[in-house]
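Risk register update: the risk of archive-format incompatibility is retired. Evidence:
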Amino acid sequence: MSEEEWERFLRESVAGAAGAPVEPSARAREVERRLREHSGQPEGWRTYSPARPRRRTGWYVTGLVVALLVVGLFPQQVVGWFDGNDGEKDEAPPAAESESPREAPGAEPDLRPTLAEPFRGSPAARWADGAAGITVPPAEATGWMDAAQVERALRQSRDFLVDAGLNSRVLRGERPTKAIALLNPHQKDVQEYLRAALSSTAPTDKTDPLLLFSRFRPEQSRLVGDVVKTRGRLTYREGKQGAVEVAADVTFVYPVTPAGDDGRDAEVVRTIVRREVVMSWDDPAEVITEPGTMSLVSYALDMTNGGCSAPTGYFVPPFGTADETADETHHVDPYDRSKRIDTSNGTTGTGNSCATATRS
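Archived output:
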């Protein structure tokens, strides 16, 4: 073999001869085996094919039929399984009251109120707490006031209602100083009423402090918890001599229990009070008044479970039995806010306080 042939032999031994067979790698042999075993396009090594579910149509149809039968035969029990509140409806709170309702709230489950759930079985269970339930409209320039002044008059009007009907001290019979400070000191008839109502031990129908202020005798009853449910609204318009006249229509629901009864099964009674109050924010150029005070145009009261005997200056919840002095021939729904308070008896305030309530 010449030297040239020997060098060519060495080069071909290192680089491999052209056309020489190549031994496949182990991975290549594995892929080739899978291709022979499975027909169709091979699955990528990073792809995922979910397993097909096993069909059990027969069982699903049977279960659906049984469920529909249970709901149809026992609807109330089914609701009770899921709401966690002994069958009581678990609905969203109603929208804030911006206009007069057209009908009374729907019926609620007949459930007894308790110390833990004092509004149980009542439409008030879904009402707002305290001042949040009194809707205040947007302020616009009216009469002698610009928009900012009207806004302040609306806020102070609500403050009057809050102190008169929600202040815990006033509810215990203390003097409603904040509410009184908002009343025009030059309105003689109202000032005379206040002096008589808040000092007399024997108020009359005309001097009963309940006409404006909610009060319970501490030794007779106490509020359950610290929440009073409310629902109502303020409206306003231009009144006499350019005054801004604010009208309030608000229902207060007070859950109370006998004083001194701390037992778990203590009786709970709901005293329900609806007030209509018209307040006049007068133009000081036309009416003698003081800044930040208003005059009372009218006030009316309607209540249930507050007592029907002679005025005492306090609400008297009928614990133990229904109030025997209530008018059994006249029934009223205290939660129906679609009708005005009936003052046909000729008074400015008491309304149908002694009618028998259809619910509480």
